[in-house]
Design brief:
CATH topology of the largest domain: Rossmann fold
Strand content: 15-25%
CATH class of the largest domain: Alpha Beta
Shape: globular
Bound molecules: adenosine-5'-diphosphate
Number of domains: 2
Largest sheet: 9 strands, mixed
């Protein structure tokens, strides 16, 4: 099977969140199963800088009135997965983020930028593919490639089947209907049974309507998005398509995230010997200016700082926990108000709280290894990867029972417990569960059982990649 995996970010070329990790590790796992899988990504400056040995495989027009684009071909750095880069400098070579400019606003031409990505994906999946390779499956990810299934269905030529994976329903890519024309979409598809959503052109809705199959990144989230509370207005469409929706839990890259070999760590450890983890904690405390104290429970957060992640709730419980002797390390960026409040907390608790507001891959690995307990109290979480990294690094996570957190973390009260799970999105409940995690931490034997359960848990891609392959086979 020839599979085109379309994504707007991929580690280690460009990453803002979990989508980049999945876009690196799932195609590699599919390649490991013997499939011909290739990536399609936008040619951001960072991507062009980091990718070596690129060659031009085609130059062609995408939309009328727009300059021609180039398609470059290369291999992903660590995995060797083939990657096509959509080289359209006018749209992708920009300073600042892939979706937003520096002050945090969306690029005003995002519809054109990702409409173009979607259109090129559809071209590579149709009989008129400009490169002599035609995908059997176009696998789209989130709204940025959501128009591809629409372009595929609207083309007259023989074309690929499409799969739409929802990594986060909260991001929908809704734009003014004036974009229909520049994006070569016929007025007839601007309909409730098409790309229209509350009077706007919705990329995600288009994907959900036109794709042959819809996948989301955990079985629990697949059920949750069919409810009014979590369906963001698309629950009706998902209910109609219920038979085509499935949940496949994300895995993680077990080589990239392995405390026994992680190049970002100085002290390595595994299930046979956890002792060097204490050295990672000491190094982290020292590096971040925290009191070097082996006994203080060190709580870790690596996250986008957003309401979704429940980090405002966490702020409410922290003073009591810190006064009780805990320490906190936070790495993340996001909503200005949350960034400010966490930085203020660090000022109020020198030596006990460290807050780093930036993206730092190495530090994120060091926190996974050096913290004692990882905090992820998300209000909703389609899958979440950090709780799996935490488990793999012997840093049991505190999570809310929602989405992929519910599917991947077993509560400490169970014999195979790997973390600490609470139900209500409520600060008092969160406080109670963190207190109970700290209580376990103080009972070395009990805590080690939870750590080892987590480290032994299968969080790799094997089973999930097979589920994706089975799905592709079924629709092809
Ligand atoms: P989401 O995709 O919703 O942001 P996930 O838990 O699925 O959440 O994935 C987040 C990914 O981004 C993880 O690999 C996490 O380590 C990483 N990450 C988030 N914020 C930062 C940061 N400030 N620095 C480094 N890595 C980060």
């Amino acid at each position: 099977m020839k599979i085109l995996f379309v994504t707007s970010e991929v580690h280690p070329l460009l990453k803002t969140g979990g989508l980049a990790d999945v876009s690196a590790s799932l195609p590699a796992a599919l390649q490991g199963l013997g499939e011909d899988v290739r990536l399609l990504i936008p040619g951001y400056s960072q991507v062009l800088d980091k990718l070596e040995s690129k060659r031009t495989v085609a130059t062609f027009g995408v939309f009328s009135g727009q300059p021609e684009v180039r398609l470059l071909s290369a291999k992903m750095p660590q995995t060797g997965v083939p990657v096509y880069v959509l080289d359209a400098p006018l749209y992708f070579c920009r300073v600042a983020g892939p979706y937003q400019y520096e002050l945090g606003g969306d690029w005003p031409d995002n519809a054109m930028r990702f409409g173009m990505l979607s259109k090129v994906a559809a071209m590579l999946g149709s009989a008129s593919s400009p490169i002599g390779w035609q995908a059997d499956i176009v696998h789209c990810n989130d709204w940025q490639s959501g128009l591809a299934p629409a372009y595929l269905q609207l083309t007259q030529a023989a074309h690929a089947k499409s799969v739409m994976t929802i990594h986060n329903m909260a991001f929908q890519g809704n734009f003014d209907s004036n974009w229909l024309k520049p994006l070569d979409l016929p007025q007839s598809c601007f309909d409730m049974h098409g790309v229209e959503f509350h009077g706007q052109l919705s990329f995600l809705k288009a994907g959900l309507h036109y794709a042959d199959r819809i996948v989301t990144v955990s079985p629990t989230y697949a059920r949750e998005i069919q409810t009014t509370e979590m369906g963001y207005g698309l629950q009706g469409l998902l209910a109609v398509r219920n038979g085509d929706v499935s949940g496949i839990l994300n895995g993680i890259d077990e080589d990239e995230w392995d405390p026994a070999t992680d190049p970002h760590l100085t002290a390595h450890y595994d299930v046979g010997d956890l002792a060097p983890k204490a050295e990672g904690k000491r190094a982290l405390q020292q590096r971040l200016g925290l009191e070097v104290n082996a006994q203080s429970p060190l709580l870790g957060v690596v996250s986008r700082l957003t309401y979704q992640k429940g980090l405002d709730m966490l702020l409410e419980c922290l003073p009591k926990l810190l006064d009780g002797g805990a320490q906190l390390v936070v790495l993340g960026s996001g909503e200005a108000d949350l960034e400010k409040r966490y930085l203020q907390l660090a000022e109020r608790y020198p030596g006990r709280v460290s807050v780093t507001v930036r993206f730092d891959e190495a530090l994120s690995h060091q926190i996974m290894a050096g913290a004692d307990i990882f905090l992820m109290p998300s209000r909703f979480e389609p899958c979440g990867l950090n709780q799996m990294y935490g488990m793999r690094y012997g840093t049991p996570p505190v999570v809310r029972r929602t989405g992929g957190l519910a599917d991947s973390v077993a509560d400490a009260s169970l014999p195979d417990g790997t973390g600490f799970v609470f139900d209500e999105a409520d600060a008092a409940m969160l406080y109670r569960v963190i207190e109970s995690a700290i209580g376990s931490y103080r009972d070395k034997k009990q805590f080690e059982r939870i750590q080892l359960n987590g480290m032994r848990r299968d969080v790799g891609w094997r089973s999930s990649a097979q589920q994706y392959r089975d799905l592709y086979r079924m629709i092809v």
